[in-house]
Amino acid sequence: MQDGVVLARALKAVRDGANGTGLPADELSAALRQFESDRAARILPLTLRSHAFGRLLQLPFPPVGVRRNRKLGVPRHCRRFHVALNPKP
Q: What's the CA angle centered on 64, arms 81 and 87, to 5 degrees?
């Protein structure tokens, strides 16, 4: 949702700068490249945090696995399979 708002603002700025003559291709391309660059910088911390938590939740440490399985609602008959997927240290 946030990306849509930011992209709409960038495109509106290009449209407003064109004075109703349409969206010039070079300005449109520049606006899209800027949006992509801004988005990458905005999303990087979230991506890194998500990766770190994903790694943490897959540790082969029983208290973490039990809590994860209960929190995620993993059915009992699947828990053995989940444990088998955890790599051995």
A: 50
In angstroms, rounded to a whole number, what is the distance separating the alpha carbons of residues 89 and 86? Answer: 9
Looking up tokens 């790599």, which residue turns up? 87
For the stretch 65-75, pLDDT in tens is 777 777 777 66
Domain parsing of the chain, residue ranges: 1-57, 60-89
* pTM score, whole prediction: 0.51
Helices (H), the chain: 2-17, 25-57, 62-72, 76-85
Residues 6+ apart with CB under 8 A from 15: 23
